[in-house]
Amino acid sequence: MNKQPTNPEEARADKEAMRLLQQAIDACNDNPTAQVAKQMMPLADKACEMAVGKYARARCQENRRLMQEIIDNEPPAEVTAEAQLVEQALNDYVRQPDEIRYARELVEKTRPQLNVIAQKIGKEHPFYLRLSTRVVDDAINNMSAEINLRMQDVDNQQGLLRAKLTVTEAMALFRAMDDMDMIPQFKSGRYSENRITLSTAYNKIMNNTDSGGRGSWHWSMQLLGWAVIIGIILIVKWACSR
Fold this sequence. Notes:
about 240 residues; about 75% helix
């Protein structure tokens, strides 16, 4: 159990721990590479050992965790080129509008590189699974955003048609991603939950021909629960996040 400093010596220990930790943080901020993180890890470990107070220990442990993430996300040497191409595609993707077509382009563009990475280091390799999961996770972000937008405009036949086309496009992209490798907890959790929710919504919306007022769509908005999905997107970020 963490404890607060109760005497000047413990307070000095916390101050020194924060000083060492800040050195490590500054070095990683200046050059956020796995090599620098590895060099700074002993300093972070020393800070964690010295810290006494609850706040100091928590801050040391959290920053050590972030350094470890930098190390873990370093691509194996044999797949550096492919990993850089995937990273570039992800960086380009985040600058695009939140539309499903860009999510589809991301999946199509990165799949060849991901396949090569899987062939070289194996489908069970943590780096490969994190990177592949990150592609799927980012694709879901855009799908959720566009569907949520379209569902706000179903007062008329044209809006209803756009919503149907959007949901149909999202279903097609989910089918294309079903065979992609992902972190097991992600695939059985967030991915499957979003997949089931969208499938249910797809069946409902495709069987609905009412172009009446917004009230006739209240049940559909409740069913989709996209606000909940987006909330999950904002809260749950995987170790493979940027």
